[in-house]
Design goal:
The protein is an alpha/beta fold. The protein is built from 17 helices and 19 strands. Among the domains are: 174 residues, Rossmann fold (3-Layer(aba) Sandwich), CATH 3.40.50; 121 residues, GMP Synthetase, Chain A, domain 3. This is GH3 auxin-responsive promoter family protein.
Length: 506
């Protein structure tokens, strides 16, 4: 098997050599041209004069001047609802066989069209991801092992003219035949709709598999590994999967989970970040000497960037009318942007809900910095999720504890505002001292927060709870599963409902 693995590795190395990265700026212009040409006779293309845009000297500028920025609610209300009613040629030629049900946190009950062209784009991105493994200096034997992909159920909801499910389930149900031999847990188990039953079956079957790579959102991967370890009375997961070397993570920041995840391992893994959203496969980490991810400049997605500040984004996390928008050619490194995408699924100048920084423009590499609606700015504190995560890492070190999950909101205390936090913690700590330490760290690292604390933001309160509270709440609200993310910032009304649930279940 080692010999076969070396042959596969050499084939992947060769594939990586012939799949050289294109010039990102030139590739992006070509992608936009192809998108506009393909969709010019759709209802959307006619409404926004795609044919005229294609005849312009500068199609990027013409595209940006004629087509407005959309969030999901605007896209659905004006266009995508027709697709759900059975109409075709609305925002992309033909109809849709699939709709992705987003379990994201920016809007409820999203139905995002997934075209055949998008599925092909995702497959192409997956091939590039495999080819990129050659950069991580993995042994040849690794390439004979199996991959466990913990996503949503592949048992999709059948409608009259389409199927519905989360994007990981749709993607897994469309895996190429050649991938079936190495994909686990396999379709039989992946089809199980109930999350707990699916994980139980994975635990039962785990000894039969030789897993080299696991893939999924950190919180649910950790729960799965704990279930396997408990079921088989193991000390760590490597006792049953000694070949496990790689974890491809994504969906949320991995750093908060790293410490607790590694307690389940005999040795650390190679961690590779990915960016697969309901709207498409956005980026992958291509090299080991960075945690940044490379966009796919030539794979059916046109990227745009809106400065993430008060001049361009409102307090609801929406792009303001008339905001400056930059293509990859004009965007700058190390500035925070709201990401917009136009895709082969008929999303146009679509605000995906994430904020990013460009870390290496020549390589088209980015880092996700947070969510547009996970930005706490009710009283001018301007706290991003990244800054919140960084502050909790400081507390973890100070108190030698693990703080993976949290939810925060600005809530009223009489006529004033405070920040109220619920934080998971594996130790019994003084919550007042933790609140003071958290407040001090945020003041030191965010000047806007520091100013807010002298004015409208009158205090900080912390409740320390077991992490199971967050997962129980997720299950109660029908948000338990491989692709589901715990929201970090809530509006006050939603937060008070969560707080009541937490207090009831303590």
């Amino acid at each position: 098997m080692a010999v076969i693995g070396e042959l596969i590795k050499k084939a992947i190395d060769f594939t990586g050599m012939i799949m050289s990265d294109p010039d990102p700026v030139k590739a992006q212009k070509k992608v936009l041209e192809n998108l506009l040409e393909t969709a010019r006779l759709t209802a959307f293309g006619k409404a926004y004069h795609f044919t005229e845009i294609l005849e312009s000297e500068d199609i990027v500028a013409a595209f940006q001047s004629k087509v407005p920025v959309h969030d999901y609610d605007k896209m659905h209300a004006e266009w995508w609802h027709y697709l759900l009613e059975g109409h075709q040629n609305v925002t992309w030629p033909g109809g849709q066989n699939y709709f992705a049900l987003s379990s994201g946190t920016t809007s409820n009950s999203k139905h995002i069209p997934v075209t055949d062209a998008m599925l092909e784009s995702i497959r192409k991105a997956g091939i590039q991801e495999i080819a990129s493994l050659s950069a991580f200096n993995l042994p040849g034997d690794f390439f004979t092992k199996q991959i466990l992909m913990l996503g949503s159920s592949t048992s999709l909801i059948e409608k009259d003219d389409h199927k519905e499910g989360e994007i990981s389930g749709i993607s897994a149900s469309n895996l190429p035949t050649w991938f079936g031999g190495i994909y686990k847990p396999g379709r039989e188990i992946a089809d199980i709709p109930d999350w707990d039953e699916r994980v139980k079956r994975i635990a039962e079957e785990a000894p039969k598999w030789d897993i080299g790579c696991i893939s999924g959102i950190p919180a649910w991967i950790e729960l799965m590994l704990k279930e396997i370890i408990s079921y088989h009375k193991l000390s760590n997961i490597h006792e049953i999967w000694p070949s496990l070397m790689v974890y491809t993570t994504g969906g949320v920041a991995f750093e908060p989970y790293k410490k607790s995840l590694e307690q389940l391992l005999a040795h650390p893994l190679i961690y590779i970040d990915t960016y697969l959203a309901s709207e498409g496969f956005i980026a992958i980490q291509k090299r080991p000497d960075t945690t940044s991810m490379a966009l796919f400049p030539d794979n059916g997605i046109f990227y745009e960037f809106v400065p993430f500040d008060g001049d361009h984004v409102d307090e609801n996390g929406l792009v303001k009318p008339g905001a400056k928008v930059f293509s990859l050619a004009d965007a700058e490194e190390d500035k925070e942007y709201v990401l917009l995408i136009s895709t082969v699924s008929g999303a146009w100048r679509y605000m995906i809900g994430d904020t990013v920084t460009i870390t290496d423009k020549a390589r088209a590499e980015i880092k996700i910095t947070g969510r547009t609606k996970h930005f706490l700015n009710v009283v001018g504190s301007q706290l991003s999720v990244n800054q919140m995560n960084d502050a909790l890492r400081v507390l973890e070190k100070e108190y030698d504890t693990v703080m993976k999950e949290f939810i925060v909101a600005a809530v009223h205390r009489n006529d004033e505002y405070i920040h109220k936090w619920y934080i998971s913690c594996d130790k019994s700590l003084d919550k007042v001292q933790v609140a003071e330490a958290l407040d001090k760290t945020l003041k030191e690292n965010n000047k806007n927060y520091n100013v807010a604390r002298t004015r409208a933001l009158k205090g900080v309160e912390v409740e320390l709870v077991p992490e199971e509270i967050f997962y129980k709440w997720s299950e109660e609200t029908k948000k338990l599963g491989g692709q589901v993310k715990i929201p970090r910032v809530m509006k006050e009304e939603d937060f008070l409902e969560f707080a009541a649930f937490a207090e009831k279940n303590l």
